[in-house]
Amino acid sequence: DQQVKQNSPSLSVQEGRISILNCDYTNSMFDYFLWYKKYPAEGPTFLISISSIKDKNEDGRFTVFLNKSAKHLSLHIVPSQPGDSAVYFCAASDLIQGAQKLVFGQGTRLTINP
Amino acid sequence: DAGVIQSPRHEVTEMGQEVTLRCKPISGHDYLFWYRQTMMRGLELLIYFNNNVPIDDSGMPEDRFSAKMPNASFSTLKIQPSEPRDSAVYFCASSFMREDTWGTDTQYFGPGTRLTVL
């Protein structure tokens, strides 16, 4: 039972355009959400996070949006750059059950075309 | 800091053999996690420790898997006996609790161990 789902295994975007990666979750107890980025042969690295009291968090070219009623979050990258080509994982946690216990999605492979 | 260190980076073994994966967390971190990445299921949490004590092992697939953390700077994940379906990339991550981050903090991942069981 996948509590965090990334339904798009891959996404291809032209350099300079906006990349939008989507993530859905089923557990209404989740209240903290993160995005991790992973390059080949490396471990995932933290990118950006958002708590459930917010609906938007921005960090440079990266913005995460949270829609709690729809149990949906998205990561926007604008403008997209070739170095953004990687696998992106969405993750969620329930601060009551265990703040450190992250549930990850399957990942979306983003390819930025020059 | 050298980051989270995992060894070996690659492991090829035959079905039925014992496999031991090793992890050295970042110094000062009090949480350690073991994850498994597969194409079908993505990144799954297997077990995590706090101050060397296992807190949640509900993700460990079966009794063939075991994990230990004898001290703050070392952990092992053992599979005995190994099976072809255990083939995956295994990641170790560490973090520490901070009061200003809603009780959690970024997890820092090692480079992973790619395990192939023939």
Task: Explain the overall architecture.
The complex is a heterodimer of chains A (about 110) and B (about 120). Chain A has one helix at about 95-100, and strands spanning about 5, 10-15, 20-25, 30-40, 45-50, 55-60, 60-65, 70-75, 85-95, 105, 110-114. Chain A has about 110 residues and is mostly beta strands. In chain A, strands 2, 4, 5, 9, 10 and 11 form a six-stranded mixed β-sheet that branches. Chain A has a five-stranded antiparallel β-sheet with strand order 1-3-8-7-6, with no helix packed on it. The longest helix of chain A is centred in the C-terminal third of the chain and has 4 residues, at about 95-100. Chain A is globular and about 45 Å long. In chain B, the strands form two sheets. In chain B, strands 2, 4, 5, 6, 9, 10 and 11 form a seven-stranded mixed β-sheet that branches. In chain B, strands 1-3-8-7 form a four-stranded antiparallel β-sheet, with no helix packed on it. With about 120 residues, chain B is mainly β. The model of chain B has no long low-confidence stretch (mean pLDDT about 90). Chain B is globular and about 45 Å long. Helices cover about 0% and strands about 55% of the residues of chain B. Chain B starts with a strand and ends with a strand.
Which spans of chain A of ≥5 residues are poorly predicted at pLDDT below 50?
none
What's the count of strands of chain A?
11
Radius of gyration of chain A: 13 Å
Apparent shape of chain A: globular
Range of helix content of chain B: under 10%
- Average pLDDT confidence of chain A is 93
Indicate the mean pLDDT of chain B. 91
Write the element-wise H/E pattern of chain A from the N-terminal end onward. Answer: EEEEEEEEEHEE
H-E order of chain B: EEEEEEEEEEE
Question: Low-confidence parts of chain B lasting 5 or more residues at pLDDT below 50?
Answer: none
Total helical segments of chain B: 0
- Main sheet overview of chain A: 6 strands, mixed
Task: Give the termini separation of chain A.
Answer: 38 Å
